[in-house]
Amino acid sequence: MPTDSSTNSNDENRRENFRIDDLLATSVHKIENGVLPVGRIIPVALSESGRLGGGLKSHPSEIDPSFALMLLEANAKLDLLFDFYKLPRYNEEKDLKPSMTQLLLQINTKLDSLLDFHLIARQQDATRVGEVSLSASGIKLTSHEPLLAGDLVEVHILLSMDQPCWVVVGGSVARATPLPEGGNQVAIQFAATSPVIQDTIATYALRKQKEQLMSQRWLEP
């Protein structure tokens, strides 16, 4: 018969390994000196103003309705450009009431795709928005930095919590698969970090799954 401690351990393992597919702003940097960064959480309000997500509010009701309309219109115009250039679409969620953060992330990832299509160079360390598979123990994403299995990396992830925040963690590349369009699909195993960071990621993943299930129910006939 399992003890309370073994039951709690199993629950913690399931929570740590629970994985969610999402559209997130991330950046990955290779570590050259072999020293992993200290894991930390940086509230958006305290991050530098130039970073993606600086100053975003998490509740649509706090945003001027005219601004929300402008974002929806900009997103629709980008969709027209995607159709014109016949660009592949990412798996965009069909959310009937997207938050301002979701709209901005969708717009930014479409702009990334257009820049790539026209071969317009950008800063190598720029934050990118794209599809990721995230859990408290690791992340799978597309990286345009040349990475190989075994490389040590520093990962920045923007989570749209009640208080949006950047999560910074160190880890190692478990797998790197070249993509036909350039870059690599990279699986990164996070290094041991604080329970607070693990809990933040796990809580976000569970909440995001709940939101996705609710959106699917709205779309069901």
Describe what you observe in this structure.
The protein has helices at 4-17, 65-85, 100-117, 195-219; strands at residues 20-30, 40-43, 128-135, 138-143, 152-159, 165-178, 184-190. The chain is of the alpha+beta class. It has one domain. A hairpin with a 5-residue loop joins strand 6 and strand 7 (184-190). Helix 2 (65-85) packs parallel to helix 3 (100-117). It is globular, with a radius of gyration of 18 Å. The N and C termini lie far apart (45 Å). GO terms for molecular function: cyclic-di-GMP binding. InterPro entries: PilZ_domain. This is PilZ domain-containing protein. Residues 132-204 form the PilZ domain.
Features:
single chain; 221 residues; alpha+beta; six-stranded antiparallel beta barrel; 4 helices; PilZ domain-containing protein; cyclic-di-GMP binding
Summarize the structure.
With 221 residues, the chain is an alpha+beta fold. The chain is built from 4 helices and 7 strands. Helix content is 35%, strand content 26%.
